[in-house]
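User: Could you check the structure of this?
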Amino acid sequence: MDLAFSCDLACSGCTHYSNYGNKGHVSFDIGEKWLRAWAGRLTPGTFSMLGGEPMFNPDLLSYLRLAYELWPESERVLISNGLNHARHPKLFETLATTHTRLDVSFHSYKDIQYLDQFNQSLVEIERQRQRLGFMLGYRPSEFTFYRTYQGEGASMRPYAQNDPLTSWTVCLGKQCMTLHRGCLWKCPPLAFLELAAARFGLDKVKEWQPYLAYQPLAPSASDAELDAFLRREEESCCAMCPTRYEYQEHGLVSRLAKRMA
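Assistant: Sure, the predicted structure tokens are below.
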């Protein structure tokens, strides 16, 4: 679940489209309803809280506690770029008491401003880990993102190679089922496509219509519908993504001086 849609980094190729200046977050009074609606029906092996940058959600600690309450036996992970932990003075204590792992993503060897702040943050995170004993992991991006669409901004277009089986087979996000607007979505590129569409008018572009028409699964779905959704592998919407991923340096651009919370 994306707790926030904004991010202070702009990584070209972000599968959540966070590089395009998305704003906002999911307030706890809304997100709690989403999570409780599914908690009685699903027990995830792993529940990841991310974004955007989840530290931009002022209710972050409430989400950590709620996830622990709902799914104490699940692996719970907070995925963050690690730059904004000072926003939540009780973050590290809450990670420890809720047994939530913090995974810090790393994005660039070249952006000096980013590296300076990242290294300072990492020193403090490691100091707190040694003090409190919470679980800590790292997610190097290998300094490349795989692209799920062609072009940039208003010129974005789906790959539409008409081979959804191959696209699904090579997909690196096939395990990333997403909770958004209270519903379950197959993956982040589909869940958050509406954000990019609204920003760049993609809803008026013919090539995007089949993917913007995707229907997520609502909590009112029957058990049979839920079971079918969870078992479904490739489907027509998978044709949005490529049949072969081409990795390229993602060209991270820091927005550290311009916070986007």
